[in-house]
Amino acid sequence: MFDKLFGWGKKKEETKPDPLISFGRYSDNNKTTAKVNRWTDADNLFKEKKYNECFDAFFDYVRDDAAANVVYERNGHEGRFQFYQGSRIVRGQFNGEELRAEATLAQMPQPSVPVMRRLLEMNFNLYYSRYALDNERLCMRFDSDLQTASPSKLYYGLKELATKADKQDDLLVQDFSALKGYDDEHVDNIPQQEKEVKYEYLQKWIQQTLDLIATVDADKFSGGIAYLLLTLIYRIDYLITPEGTLLNELEKIGGIYFKKDERPVTEKNRDMMEGFKKIMTMPKDEIFNNLFRSKYTFAIVAPQAYKTIADNIHGANQNMVWYRDNNYPVFAVQICEYGISYCQYSYSMPKVITEMFHVLMMVNYHNYFTDLGFGTSYYDAAQGIIKGEAIAERIKNIQNNWKEKYPLLDFKTQNLRFDSLVNFNHTFTNELEFLNLDPK
Questions:
Q1: pLDDT digits (tens, 9 = 90+) for 309-334
Q2: Do 410 and 395 form a contact (C-beta atoms < 8 A)?
Q3: Alpha carbons 346 and 344: distance in angstroms, whole number
Q4: Whole-angstrom Cα distance, residue 263 to residue 267?
Q5: Does 141 have pLDDT greater than 90?
Q6: Quick one: which of 210, 251, 257 has its CA closest to 234?
Q7: How far apart are CA 197 and CA 392, in angstroms?
Q8: What whole-number distance in Å separates Cα of residue 103 and Cα of residue 182?
Q9: Helices 222-235 and 329-346: crossing angle, nearest 10°?
Q10: What is the pLDDT of residue 257?
């Protein structure tokens, strides 16, 4: 009975290799102990006024070796660097006096007053960088003299430049016909079949959510409906990984709920649903244009203390109880997912937590992963059972891989329940809540 229920005692099935598909927002909160030490090196070298060696250590720190996202060369007092941030490339150089960096946004063959007005307004929100026009090339720039180019200034200055440029390039080209796309040859197009699957599930998940909402009272279930809609945003963001205008539309939907105003939740829910309906009517080709793969160097959100993550998980699980006990299992499942998926969307998460979160998503959306071509599965669709042994093994491997950085990490897989999706999500996220990520 236990073998059948939990999937224990079975021989391991041979599976085909999983496709190389990335999920979720890039997080630079994934540095190894050696990489973290390079930041300390950079800080100490700057204090000793060894600026060239400081740059060596700094760019080694920001380089993600697995992603090969940074190119850095130095010859004496002069050097150059290049790094990727989504659809943009940031290029820069330094000499014995200053460091300069820039990213090209678009091409503007003819001067445009509306474009320049938009850029002037956005300039007021920048702290380190600025918009610039170089002949027909619209770009963003950052520079600093060496005496003030501390690792912190470099990090936040280059991050502002890179993340703003990556976000604004698509929006500017979309909003102004005077602009043309530029310098995006490095972006990797994804296979047509993958786009088809992502488009299918984008439509399906939105429609399923709207259909479920239609079965309950909009006033009495306003809180639960808000959970469903917000969780849908975070699910699409993580699993489909949209870029450009599609990502911007999702961010606007989330902004409706979290905007600090006096409007009742029912009105916000209504507007969020309209936002999703708008996405459903977007032309298929436009959706496809916002599905691509690229390299990143900086996260667009900031890391948080793990207690903040734990508190979000705890709050969602507390709010789930009523829906579970009153026989609204789909609401309960989604609310459990909300606590950790909100963090995955809103914060730069430790990679070890993202890897565990990914297991949760593979269980909940196993059909999606199967259709994408994944051989790894944690759910037996034929028998309707969650594969407890495979999940426990995967969690054990994750912990072992991160043991050096998080020696106190202890995900107790024996506390997991596999008899229903509600109980699995609850016990899984509950274990995430109590993890100890204190460093060595």
A1: 999 999 999 999 999 999 999 999 99
A2: no
A3: 6
A4: 7
A5: yes
A6: 251
A7: 29
A8: 11
A9: 50
A10: 95
